[in-house]
Amino acid sequence: MKFNNRNIFISNKATIGSNVKIGDNTVIYDNVIIGDNSIIANDCVIGEPLHDYYFKDDYQNPPTIIREGSMIRSHTIIYSDSIFGKNFSTGHRVTIREKSKFGDNCRLGTVTDIQGYVEFGDNCWLHSNVHIGQKSKIGNFVFIYPYVVLTNDPTPPSDICVGAEIGDFSQIAVGTVLLPATSIGKHCLVGAQSLVGGKYEDYSLIIGNPAKKIKDVRELISKKTGKSHYPWPENFSRNMPWEKEGFDSWKLKNGYEND
205 lies in a domain? Predict the structure, then answer.
């Protein structure tokens, strides 16, 4: 055991799987379910109650589900009414608001802020200091790099909330802002510090402020290899599920025949 079993609160209405390690000063609220072989590090809050908790005597905390093999690092706060797939992991000081849904094998970097009411597919990697606005919808194998912001209010301040969408296998580079209702297709690359609005088809290379499609991303030639790096799954396999068999073989077995 790596922790000291100090100042831990676990609700008697929580369900904790086998071989779960829980760090010091951590609070686990009602109706939290934590899967087997997971780690919740020091100073975390899991199943943070929603707004009504503070004002209604009959409040009941919605379920929060963290599936097996997950790693929640120190000072992470996860609000109730969210679900996380297998092998979910966070860096330090991550905040995830209510009604967030993540697939399997997703990673969130340090100081990432998920504003809730979002959907992520499988194998999404978010680096540090990423902000995801409400109603965002992210596909599978999407990588989002530091200081990216996804916005959702087209006429702030208003009651309109229209999140951005990002398709499978797309890459969003450092310092990019996606405006409300932006739609990025599959296998796209958005260049660093771009300000992006509108709708972009699959395989778009998107760059600029304001951003525009420059070319088909498959036309982007690597200076190192002299060949196109895209689609990147054909050329990058480290820690990917196709690492041993190759992307072409893997995608046929996993419903990505057209990718």
Answer: yes
Q: How many CB atoms lie within 10 A of CB 225?
A: 9
Residue 244 lies in a domain: no
By C-alpha distance, which of 37, 50, 1, 5 is closest to 24? 5
Q: Where are the alpha helices (DSSP H) in the chain?
A: 247-253
pLDDT tens readout for residues 187-201: 999 999 999 999 999
Q: Which residue's structure tokens are 């580079």?
A: 173
Q: Is residue 196 part of a domain?
A: yes
Residue with tokens 């779960």: 20
pTM of the model: 0.94
Judge whether 84 and 104 are in contact, CB under 8 Å: no
**Cα–Cα distance, 250 to 122 (Å, whole number):** 15
Distance (Å, rounded) from C-alpha 195 to C-alpha 170? 16
Q: Quick check: 171 and 232 in contact, CB under 8 A? A: yes
* Backbone region of residue 180 per phi and psi (left: phi > 0; alpha: psi in -120 to 50; beta: other values): beta
Evaluate whether residue 237 is within a structural domain. no
Range of the structural domain that residue 69 is part of = 9-219
Question: pLDDT band for position 256 (50/70/90)?
Answer: confident
Structural domains in the chain (count): 1
DSSP state of 252: H
The pLDDT, as a whole number, for residue 190 is: 98
pLDDT, tens digit (0-9, with 9 covering 90-100), for 109-130: 999 999 999 999 999 999 999 9
- The CATH number assigned to the domain holding 56 equals 2.160.10.10
Distance (Å, rounded) from C-alpha 31 to C-alpha 79? Answer: 12
Q: Take residue 102 and report the two structure tokens written for it.
A: 């993540």
Phi, psi of 176 (to 5 degrees): -80, 145
